[in-house]
UniProtKB/TrEMBL annotation:
Transmembrane segments: none
Official protein name in the record: Phosphopantetheine adenylyltransferase
Site-annotated residues for Transition state stabilizer: H19
Its EC number(s): 2.7.7.3
Protein keywords: ATP-binding, Coenzyme A biosynthesis, Cytoplasm, Magnesium, Nucleotide-binding, Nucleotidyltransferase, Transferase
Naturally occurring in which organism (per UniProt): Nocardioides phosphati
Amino acid sequence: MNVRIAVCPGSFDPVTNGHIDIFGRAADLFDEVIVATGLNPSKTRLFTPDERIDMLTEVCRAFPNVRVAGFTGLLTAFCQEQGAVAIVKGLRAVSDYEYELQMAQMNSSLAEVETVFIPTSPEYSFLASSLVKEVAMFGGDVSGLVPDFVRERLITRLDERKRSGA
Ligand code: PNS
């Protein structure tokens, strides 16, 4: 049997309930899904790659055909290495589309890999890791937006940052 592998790439800094919704739906569509944290050079990160992988591994335990990996180079090179036929991305709004379309087209010019867009469930359409971090930084309640253990790690990391003056 031909195993259809998809890669769900992202920064996941940290993983949100919106990401988890996409992982589960991708897992229903493909035989195997690799949730992969990569480098987005235009973003600064709160958690290290190992910490992000650790949180992703914890949340992906719920999906038997999903595994977690990190990659450092091009996403297309990682997809080729893994034998993946598709890249799965969640689309929240029209504003996501322009950037995602550009990346999808660039990626398909680099390798034979399709990008599949999954529309975000309406309850998560406003959800972004960057906003979750900002809300938590100013003392807002992010429960319901990220898993509880992620919320705890987020609060701890922000406290550490505050105390160190970073
Ligand atoms: O969650 P993000 O930050 O939107 O994820 C972006 C990510 C990591 C998927 C993207 O930046 C990426 O693919 N980085 C790897 C380097 C690469 O392949 N760049 C070319 C993209 S067209």
